[in-house]
Specification:
Order of helices and strands of chain A: HHEEEHEHHHEEHEEEHEEEEHEEHEHEH
Number of helices of chain A: 12
Number of domains of chain A: 2
Strand content of chain A: 15-25%
Largest interface: A-B, 72 and 72 residues
Radius of gyration of chain A: 23 Å
Shape of chain A: globular
CATH architecture of the largest domain in chain A: 3-Layer(aba) Sandwich
CATH topology of the largest domain in chain A: Aminopeptidase
Number of strands of chain A: 17
Distance between the termini of chain A: 30 Å
Oligomer: homodimer
Structural class of chain A: alpha/beta
Low-confidence stretches of chain A: none
Helix content of chain A: 25-40%
Chain lengths: 423, 423
């Protein structure tokens, strides 16, 4: 039996919970949630609080050019390889306290526990706060981890604009902390992320820990409809080129087709903008977003075919222009089976109920999974609700997940290497 | 035969066109249109240009507490009664050069022509620029003229907020020109407005002048749908409370029912806002506007019944809250028949083709029609397009309409009084 895995150390529950609730004060909303949009003032305030906590325990903090934050606990080995743990501190516009923040602060708690116990593990541990996971201000989501994993080009990401035409490059230039080193190439041999499930499965199954075997594929589309602005009082119904009516028909059919296609399909229109947006003018321009997800890419292909068919039928019917642009395509992901086993053994050792499951949501771990051995741990959240201010996870579950993360990290140190690192 | 009506004077076409195109420079957009939202910087710049033009020819300029601008050419009579002419300088977000501005600047041209010809008419002529006719930034439309006509309370109007929570009262306080008198009670014995038709009827009928007999009724509703924010990747389709899907179904049914109910009904959803408005979150809140118009109130009643039925069916189907609020109800209006006859006689005298017609759009003249003798003159606009940057009216039609306005005003001076004034 190995040295590190057999250690009986536990994380400090009180300190973990305190950190989560302290972080939740940054960008706090009225109904218990948070608003820390990527690259906003609040996002950088959150990074600064994390930096303070990391430097307090002697971690070596740096950021890369897309704003991913790395805080290193040096291992005994001089080698460049290290184990990454972390998640993200950015949130949805009306986000919860736990989505992302839990993964970062559980990682911090694991390192604090190692420091408390004077454990210097063989491998360095890098706590990571990935930039712009949510992708709701700047598309696509998982941006920081995708740049790190080289599936998105840095220069391309830096040029991304938000809806007010602000550019990531300029936001970073203004807000990048002056006293933090900018380092490009952080080597990782493996990566572990812990997160709330954001769905109802663990709660319904009465299990404490989810061992995530993989994640469903996810595609993002933009739909742009162009017609003609006209007066709402004078323009007869049959002479209109009303893009909002076309959008309403599109969205209604999109929802209907998705419900009929496959019961595991998730199909969402999350945002719509119409122009000129005046109550007495017919809309000459409408834009909306599409998000579709499923564990099998063939179902996503079928849904895309449906979407294109809806568009071509509406173009014929309304003599209007509809343009569909694919803005991202995150493939189905399988997590490393050796790491799944390590997580399962940690659950057994700690006597936590567990189950294998796939992730419905997108996570930074998905960006890394194709490049290095990667694993994910889920804990339940109340009523499966997330991306909502009401999002909640119990203190006991937060503690349990963090202990599983700790013992997974300890066990990873027992292997000389999990796999030849790609990054 | 009377003295003033038999005058053969004509307006100065070149000066009229020059004024229209000069005014169009304020808030100019890229495709030939204008953006002068009510109470914006551009709106006040337009007022200031008008004030300069009016003071140049010795008119007495003042504004009332809602920002309606009055410029008076003193008549021979000392009596307080006067004839009002005018329209509005505010525009839609992507408005045209002629909607509103033509009516104000044709009124100015009429007064300039009287001054050129040293005509001092018996009655004072008041050129009026009504505040916030469009109602797209601050609801309802026809606000300034409705406050003047006492169908909206001044205090209520001043408290109106735009979508950024800016209040009219504060906007006026900041922007009200310091050197302009604030006067409350401008008496009018009659009011005449000239406007582009904003529809295709005159053009299709090959007529130069529309004698407007009345205007259709118009109602504004707000629809608010409340559901639940949730994660787009994890929330099964059958567990969602997605307000945007409900809105899409609502709008699609609304459009279908309106098309089937009556061929003269105009039914429009001009604006939609969804929250949190993130591509990977299900929308817990959606708001949209409804605008319905018809010459008969019974048809509008029927459409309102349809709208309430759609809402109650969707509430049942989706277990979601839908709230419908009526924000304005502008009744069907009939214009004064004596004034219609005067306009018709002016057309005959000037040899312009003409037809009687009703107005599809809302106009400030409608606010006044129930209180004092009021008339409206239309001229054609290209392809009937309005509330669009492409809006266009020919120089010849602009001239013709302005001459009809001039001779209508002259004739009104031949009557001792049209009617006992109410205002």
């Amino acid at each position: 039996m190995s040295k590190y895995f057999n250690s009986n150390i536990k994380i400090n529950k009180k300190r973990l919970i305190k950190s989560i609730y302290k972080m939740a004060k940054i960008g706090q909303l009225n109904n218990g949630g948070c608003r820390r949009l990527a690259f906003s003032e609040e996002d950088f305030k959150a990074k600064k609080l994390l930096i303070n906590w990391c430097t307090e325990i002697g971690l070596n903090v740096s950021m890369d050019p897309i704003g991913n934050l790395f805080a290193e606990l040096k291992g005994k080995f001089k080698k460049n390889e290290s184990i990454g743990i972390g998640s993200h501190l950015d949130t949805q516009p009306h986000g919860g306290k736990f989505d992302g923040a839990y993964g970062v602060l559980a990682g911090l708690e694991v390192i604090r526990t190692l420091v408390d116990n004077n454990i210097v593990p063989p491998k360095s541990i890098k706590l990571i706060n990935w930039s712009n996971e949510e992708g709701c201000r700047f598309t696509p989501p998982l941006m920081g981890s995708s740049v790190y994993a080289k599936s998105i080009k840095l220069n391309h990401a830096l040029k991304t604009l938000d809806k007010n035409h602000l550019k990531i490059e300029n936001e970073l230039q203004k807000k990048f902390p002056q006293d933090i080193k900018k380092i490009f190439n952080h080597k990782l041999e493996s990566f572990i992320e812990i997160h709330i499930e954001q769905g109802p499965i663990l709660e319904k199954s009465k299990k404490c820990i989810g061992i995530v075997t993989g994640a469903q594929g996810s595609r993002g589309l933009d739909v742009i409809i162009k017609g003609q602005d006209a007066h709402s009082g004078t323009t007869p119904m049959n002479l209109r080129k009303d893009t909002l009516i076309v959008a309403a028909n599109f969205i209604q059919l999109f929802d209907k087709r998705a419900r009929n296609l496959n019961c595991d399909l998730r199909a969402t229109v999350g945002n719509i903008l119409t122009s000129p947006g005046s109550r007495n003018t017919i809309s000459g321009y409408t834009f909306f977003t599409i998000d579709i997800r499923h564990p099998r890419s063939i179902i996503l292909d079928k849904m895309e075919t449906c979407i294109n068919k809806i568009a071509s039928d509406l173009i014929k019917k309304y003599k209007i222009s509809i343009n569909i642009k694919k803005v991202y395509n995150l493939p189905t992901v399988n997590f490393n089976t050796k790491i799944q086993n390590i997580i399962e053994n940690a659950c057994n050792k700690l006597n936590y109920t567990k189950m294998k499951m796939i992730s419905g949501a997108g996570h930074d771990a998905m960006s890394l999974a194709e490049k290095i051995p990667t694993g994910m741990i889920f804990i339940p959240c109340l009523n499966g609700i997330s991306h909502n201010e009401k999002e909640h996870a119990s203190d006991d579950d937060l503690e349990a997940g963090c202990n599983v993360l700790l013992h997974t990290i300890l066990k990873l140190n027992d292997f000389k290497t999990i796999h030849t690192p790609h990054l």
